[in-house]
Amino acid sequence: MAALSLAVVSAPTFSGEDPVVTPQAGLAETLEAQRDAIMALPGVVGTGLSRCDDQPCITVLAHQPSPELERKLELLLGGHRFTVVQTGPIHAYPEGR
What we know:
- The chain has a domain at 27-86.
- It has helices at residues 27-39, 67-76, and strands at 44-52, 55-62, 82-86.
- It is an alpha+beta fold.
- The chain is built from 2 helices and 3 strands; from the N terminus they run αββαβ.
């Protein structure tokens, strides 16, 4: 069984123009620039930096992965390596618990 190392970071705030992702942008910069758009995709519940086949990659946590989700991620991530991990439903605990 493969181990998943995931560094989840908070959502960025932007001012001015939308960020542009280029193939030269690093993984962290790409994730930061595209996190809001990724999190807005149906079924996505989280993002992070991880390793795929012993190479750095972006990990997207999704309730139910689909070919359509992967196509959208390919466009958003500008050719960077990524993986989609199926999580199933995730529910937040009520406050105070």
